[in-house]
Amino acid sequence: MFQVQSLLNWNEDTIVLGVFQKNNQLGGLLSILDEKLEGQISELMKEGDISPKRGEISKLYPLGKMSTKRIYLAGLGKEKEFTFEAAREIFGKLFQSLQKARIQTAAVAADTFLTEEMDILEISHAMGEALHLSTYQVQNYKHKSNEPEKPIQQMTIISEKDSAEIQAALNVGEAYGKGTNSARTLVNMPGNILTASELAEYAARLSEKYGFECEILEKEDMEKLGMGGMLAVNQGSAEPPKMIVLKYQGRENWEDVIGLVGKGITFDTGGYSIKPKDGIVGMKTDMGGAAAVLGAMEIVGETKPEQNIVAVIPSTDNMISGSAMKPDDVIISMSGKTIEILNTDAEGRLVLADGLTYAKHHGAEVLVDIATLTGGVIVALGTEMTGSMTNNEGLYKQVLEASEECGEPMWQLPITEKDMKRVRNSQMADLNNSPGREGHAIMAGAFLREFAEGSPWVHLDIAGTATTKKASPLGPSGATGVMARTLASFVERFVPENS
Ligand code: BES
Ligand code: ZN
Ligand code: ZN
């Protein structure tokens, strides 16, 4: 996708430059270009036809003054306000306009995007990531494909800085973008096509590609291991459940293992506590946690951090039939804790409970679970913030830093001892799976905390952020692939508590 070059060849068909807002002053390459164009740029800027405002993309046609056919000028705003996130968004806009104009190759004068704070490596990462995020298209099943006829083929990065380092940063950015897109594709897939078995096969293929150890537990294995949460949710289904486990060992010894556990409900009808007809549409996305974990593992496969990771994905659909679980049932989870089912629609926490226990079984010492878990988190935080909870502020801080760096914000909700009492309030069992509407995002977190059993744990509720109704410079409406990047960035930088 990218090649790096040190000298700008002014004969390229399409050239891209960044323009900062600084009292209409040009500098460096821009001045050279302005000269070649006999002052056209400074003139158009004065007139306001070329805007250096952040996110404004202007086009210029040299028409014979140079052999370049067209020049794209990307407004970058004020230098001081030019963050990594801003850069990624601007590249997103830029690539979207190139794609729309069916421009397949272009040269980007990368040094025109640099500031004191933003070095070429950050710019390269932002560019690599944005290229894939911004041009992603939902894979659909239309006879007439809506894929672009002419997708972007190659970007030439022009910079005087070290080209090997630039290439490496571009590669990492591309891995982050592609991993996120893979998560998006999984989430967008309909439940009849992406069954638990299909998800397991996808995970097996990913493992083969990157050399992960892969274990898929079948229903009989779950019975042997006593995974009562998984089995209860799957009980009404015609599709077999799968507990998907991927292991990546980046250190000499299997220690300081990070457990990533993602909810993989391929369709959530709600079960006997059935969802209303409006609330059921869209429930193919209830494996968004699983997709984020698999997207992160793809990034891990590409970037190969020195970490140990066990990814666990409990997967099934949540259906109704003569054999389905019912409200009032009591089940025994793999941990041994008994659970009274008060609401069959609170199924995510049941499969995650066994997922967390199984991750610990595989040596996970810290746990991050991720799930489209509650409508409550959407009411509380809306669709821009992932809800998060923890039993360990140190680990939380590490996940938070990754989320901030990746532009995937999260907001912490508290879990108090009184909340713990509510999930433990059952005449019949150790826990109940639905203590009521009040603070129900917190109730789900409190329930899961029981299964971390004292291990440092962070819970991410992405019910509001896994999908979006509106397109943006970094992707279309539909699945966002949220948290694939945050998880990958978290594991890359993870420092164990005791080190
Ligand atoms: N999969 C849903 C949560 C959800 C809602 C995800 C909206 C995405 C968009 C989850 O399994 C669920 O149904 N949760 C219930 C929990 C309640 C029964 C305690 C909810 O949030 O209403
Ligand atoms: Zn549900
Ligand atoms: Zn669900």
Structural account:
- The chain is an alpha/beta fold and 499 residues long.
- The chain is 38% helix and 20% strand.
- The chain has 16 helices and 20 strands.
- Strands 7, 8, 9, 10, 11, 14, 15, 16 and 18 form a 9-stranded mixed sheet that branches. Strands 1-6-5-2-4-3 form a 6-stranded mixed sheet, with helices on one face.
Rounded Rg? 25 Å
The largest sheet, given as strand count, sense and whether it forms a barrel, is: 9 strands, mixed
**Straight-line distance between termini:** 39 Å
Count of individual beta strands: 20
Full CATH superfamily name of the largest domain: Zn peptidases
- Level of helix content? 25-40%
**Which CATH architecture of the largest domain?**
3-Layer(aba) Sandwich
Percent strand equals: 15-25%
Given as residue ranges, the uncertain stretches (5+ residues, pLDDT < 50) are none
Report the structural category.
alpha/beta
Number of domains: 2
CATH class of the largest domain: Alpha Beta
Q: With helices defined by DSSP (H or I, 4 residues minimum), what is the helix count?
A: 16
Classify the fold: give the CATH topology of the largest domain.
Answer: Aminopeptidase
Name the overall outline. elongated
List ligands, each type once.
ligand BES, zinc ion
